[in-house]
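User: Structure with magnesium ion, tokens only please.
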Amino acid sequence: MRRVVEVTNIKKSFGKLRVLDKVDFYVKEGDFKVIIGENGSGKSTLLKIMVGLLLPDEGEVNVLGIDVKKQWKKLSAKIGVVLANERSLYWKLTAWENLDIFGGIYGVPKKERRKRMKELLERFGLFEYKDKPVEDFSTGMRKKLMVCKALIHNPKILFVDEILNGLDPSSTREMVEYLSELNEKGLTVVMISHVLHILPESADVALLRNGQIQMEVKYKDIRSKRREIYEVFEKLIKVGEVDEKDILFSREGYEDKA
Ligand SMILES: Nc1ncnc2c1ncn2[C@@H]1O[C@H](COP(=O)(O)OP(=O)(O)OP(=O)(O)O)[C@@H](O)[C@H]1O
Ligand SMILES: [Mg+2]
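Assistant:
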């Protein structure tokens, strides 16, 4: 499979703070990649660099053959992005109107747009709420709608930052199911997450620490005895040691900060 994301030797500082220090990271077509790391480790910074929202100080970023540093405008038609705690939906407008507007902005022709809007809303269990204003939606419904919005133009890669934050256990499971189903159908997914207890078995988990991608493991191997990765993961959420309810509870702190 070809590499659809290639990040090489990325450095990024904010003032004196070196956040990313020679990051090398790649994603192959069809991958489901999850980037994990402690708060402030630079996950969102890396994601923003990959999608062209931030410029690195040094290094190369290539996504779908596009040099992101130079041609980021070209990229938006080919990727879907959900940022952490994004507020980009129009709250007074309905779900349907929101998708219609964003589909229009992406230049999806009306007929195709309507078809896709219906399909996405149905798939995410939102079709019956399509005429409700987004301000009446629950957190979970809004997150689902943000994913619909990010997929309206049928992108090749979906980048999502902390989409599982604030979801209850059943919505978390649902969201992961939707994403893994889309992934099985060919969508490449790059996700930032703190929720490790439920991810697709096929996911590759990349650990960002001390400014670098230090390690990448198959999700199914995370509970293995590799001490370094286990220790960091254990700090974030106690893998396999607490039940779902407690894991979500222990994550409350992240919500406020993100
Ligand atoms: N625009 C900015 N200006 C200054 N500092 C920033 C900026 N964006 C991020 N930082 C700093 O860079 C570091 C990494 O931030 P980033 O948001 O990438 O971390 P993160 O891994 O996504 O954290 P979290 O798990 O809390 O979401 C933090 O110390 C943050 O305060
Ligand atoms: Mg972040």
